[in-house]
């Protein structure tokens, strides 16, 4: 596993000082070769021993070992990008770009899988599959996934209440009760209105499930269960593609769990597809 992936996957379990070191390394991986352990400690205003202990906790002998490993990972990534660029000059450019994008999506999906333990994903699948009603909301681009997932749950016979308007959702959750679930999609986790909906839902004794980036954010603080997405790229036109791809892969896995976890649900799915198919014909 890449040391950068390992750092991202374990960040939430780290202490406050360890998270500061982790964030600095993730944001400055290409520059780390110029930092000694003392310089890194000075930059973060922590002790040198904290840097050494951080490295050892990740399974490295010390900071030089960690720095070397990260340098190798960065070099591999850069050489990979260079290889794609070189190939583009002699091969079809669209094919080369597609290959690079596929690789970056695969990396985002792997990181996302690592930061969502199997037991946490299973808990989400169980909560949705056993809920009396599932309330689903996402704003803006987040509604793309909210709408599609609501449709899939409906095919399984799960009563879903989907909305993309916060005022309407506040009114809807007044009908929520114990045993219901609220699934909230918010990439940055900073929408105040969504946090208010979560608070209201928890008063009704329902279970709150949030879907956000792998960052500390206000929305996650209201979650009983949290799904996290890790997708990073310096190019603003690429990073959203990685996020949506990794999130879709995560949701697909949960949907499969719900489908295969109940013969009754699977039977309802087949019956619904048979009923819908004739309606799609011209």
Structure commentary:
- The protein has twelve helices and five strands.
- It is an alpha/beta fold and 282 residues long.
- Helix 3 (37-44) packs across helix 4, helix 6 (93-115) packs across helix 11 and helix 7 (118-129) packs across helix 11 (239-260).
- It is elongated, with a radius of gyration of 22 Å.
- The model is unreliable at 81-94 (pLDDT under 50).
Task: Give the end-to-end Cα distance, rounded to a whole number of Å.
Answer: 50 Å
SSE order, one letter for each helix or strand: HHHHHHHEHEHEHEEHH
Shape: elongated
Q: Which regions contain 5 or more consecutive residues with pLDDT less than 50?
A: 81-94
C-alpha-based Rg, rounded: 22 Å
Main β sheet profile = 5 strands, parallel
Number of continuous helical runs: 12
Structural class: alpha/beta
Share of residues in helices = 55-70%
Strand content: 5-15%
Mean pLDDT: 88
Number of strands: 5
User: What strand line-up does the widest sheet have?
Assistant: 2-1-3-4-5
What would the keywords be for this entry?
single chain, 282 residues, alpha/beta, 5-stranded parallel sheet, 12 helices, 9% strand, elongated
Secondary structure topology:
Layout: H1 3-10, H2 16-27, H3 37-44, H4 48-57, H5 63-90, H6 93-115, H7 118-129, E1 134-138, H8 142-155, E2 160-163, H9 166-172, E3 181-185, H10 192-203, E4 207-213, E5 225-229, H11 239-260, H12 263-280
Parallel strand pairs: 1-2, 1-3, 3-4, 4-5
Helix pairs in contact: 1-6, 3-4, 5-6, 6-11, 7-11, 8-11
